[in-house]
């Protein structure tokens, strides 16, 4: 049996088991007549689109239609651990984009290009992600404002972060002004703590990192991850904003409907969209606006398919250029992560992957909402620190995530499958062993890439070139980050409490360098680096003076009337940490901008 069929079998098993225990959420949907006319069309019901649609529908005289390419979410989506279900190959809940082979990163992968995953389902990538809730740091938003985007400074965006939140963690009085209760999105700390996780904060203390609430203005330190869950179940923006909105008469959701083009009149005013539903091309018209919330791959793709984008690129593909916007699909940013910095722990304190997912764990979760299934796979603690810029010691430049698991712990079925044979050989002696990893991420990488069209066929995926580690500053900072990760995992507490042992053997591909010398780490970083699934920036928000800007600070597409982009694409620069929470804030603020423009607030 091939590895693929084993994985698909496991996927089937997970889905059946989950379906036995959990009732999936079913969203009310509609099939609209051809040429329907509404006030607003929102393309995509993902992390941002659901917020936008739900908030717009608060205005009772507005009709809002959401067109979503995917379908109903699977039963397993609610259970944090079972996000794994959509990690299996060829999942029907995912879009797979094509990645160009990489020159500077991912060198240990079998294929340095490969596929890049996004959610294609109600709730979008927020339905299948790992739920880590991370707002970024205040300086991220001060930078956005300083780039000429008024109204996006930290003080303003904090209001929107708080508006979405129902925080259920411990709270120090100094942190209280930054947190909120009673909002639509639940935020809880990771509850299941295996031995590795229990000593994570003490390991940070050995490095001088105090425990902090990283979603405030104190961002250097260590912390247990916060998750977007309520009572230990995943909460998506579709659950929190779309579902309540769908109970009103003025909000409609149509699924399995892929938008293929924006319809514009002779004056470049967006008046509707063409979409495909059940193999039939249909149209929907918007009296007020079309809003693209299709994500950082599909929003620029839709603009380009509609003739809005870099003229030369469009003409090469035989697409008539309507508005020459050279910035569409440029400025692609993502977080870069280096895997493989790992330790084994003593076998008598371990739990196997099968214990973590077996019927006992299911029952524990189902009856008490406790145990391993309450957390996404391996997620425990994070450390934010500054290793590259002593002038700004209070601003983290890297993030290290501590994962309670080893590559190869699943006998390589899943975690090692993307890698070359030499990596499999390296892990063979410890396959199945328990342990932990320290994975460094660059908080704000400087390397930027592109999203382009493969062809003018709307069903072809966009092509991504993330170009990671092309900027020399990123490369050198990642080497420092890898060394800091090694120091952190070597903390005395891990050895004392867990019998932690580093994998003290050079990776064969880098064995020609002295073990753990700077050159060894450079080779290691080039090899192990991969993308963090945080694509953004591809329709960047900028003032008119910036020729690469795609949307204005009010998120209107330049050169087109009645068209906005509101999703991760608009970020002018990537924020420090994971970006799902940032998309909630963008959705909240975007909806308020629209309401302001129509005098509704
Ligand atoms: C595997 C994975 C793990 C992740 N883990 C985390 C994490 O732990 N923490 C975190 O902060 N971030 C995480 N992220 C990133 C985060 O989920 C995304 O950044 C965020 O969801 C992006 O929101 P969005 O609204 O821009 O796009 P999406 O949520 O991707 O929504 C886009 C929606 O548009 C729909 N769509 C696309 N094209 C069309 C079309 N032509 N017509 C109609 N509909 C269309 C899609 O089906 C989708 O539903 C993860 C992402 C992935 C993929």
Class by SSE composition:
alpha/beta
Regions with little confidence, pLDDT below 50 for 5+ residues: none
Bound molecule types = flavin-adenine dinucleotide
Helix percent reads 25-40%
Oligomer: single chain
Largest sheet: 7 strands, mixed
Give the averaged pLDDT, no decimals: 93
Beta-strand residue fraction: 15-25%
Notable features of this structure?
alpha/beta; single chain; oxidoreductase activity, acting on CH-OH group of donors; 601 residues; seven-stranded mixed sheet; 26 strands; flavoprotein; FAD/NAD-bd_sf; FAD; six-stranded antiparallel sheet; Glucose Oxidase, domain 3; flavin adenine dinucleotide binding; binds flavin-adenine dinucleotide; globular
Question: Can you describe what's shown?
Answer:
- With 601 residues, the protein is α/β, with parallel strands linked by helices.
- It has a domain at 183-234 and 335-531: Glucose Oxidase, domain 3.
- The protein is 27% helix and 20% strand.
- The chain has 16 helices and 26 strands.
- Strands 1, 2, 11, 12, 13, 14 and 26 form a seven-stranded mixed β-sheet that branches. Strands 7-19-20-21-18-24 form a six-stranded antiparallel β-sheet.
- The mean pLDDT is 93.
- The structure holds flavin-adenine dinucleotide.
- Flavin-adenine dinucleotide binds next to strand 4, strand 12, helix 8 and helix 16.
Concise synopsis of the structure shown:
Its cofactor is FAD. It contains 16 helices and 26 strands. α13 packs across α15.
Write the layout of secondary structure elements.
Layout: H1 3-21, E1 36-43, H2 49-56, E2 64-67, E3 94-99, E4 115-119, H3 138-146, H4 154-164, E5 165-167, E6 185-189, H5 195-198, H6 200-206, E7 221-224, E8 226-227, E9 229-230, E10 233-234, H7 237-246, E11 251-254, E12 257-264, E13 270-277, E14 280-292, H8 295-305, E15 308-309, H9 311-316, E16 323-324, E17 336-338, E18 342-344, H10 353-357, H11 359-368, E19 379-385, E20 398-403, H12 421-427, E21 435-442, E22 450-452, E23 463-465, H13 472-489, H14 492-498, E24 501-502, H15 518-528, E25 529-531, E26 563-565, H16 580-597
Parallel strand pairs: 1-2, 1-14, 2-11, 3-23, 5-6, 14-26, 15-16
Antiparallel strand pairs: 3-4, 6-8, 7-19, 9-10, 12-13, 13-14, 17-25, 18-21, 18-24, 19-20, 20-21, 22-23
The structure holds flavin-adenine dinucleotide (FAD).
Flavin-adenine dinucleotide (FAD) binds near residues 128, 295 and 578.
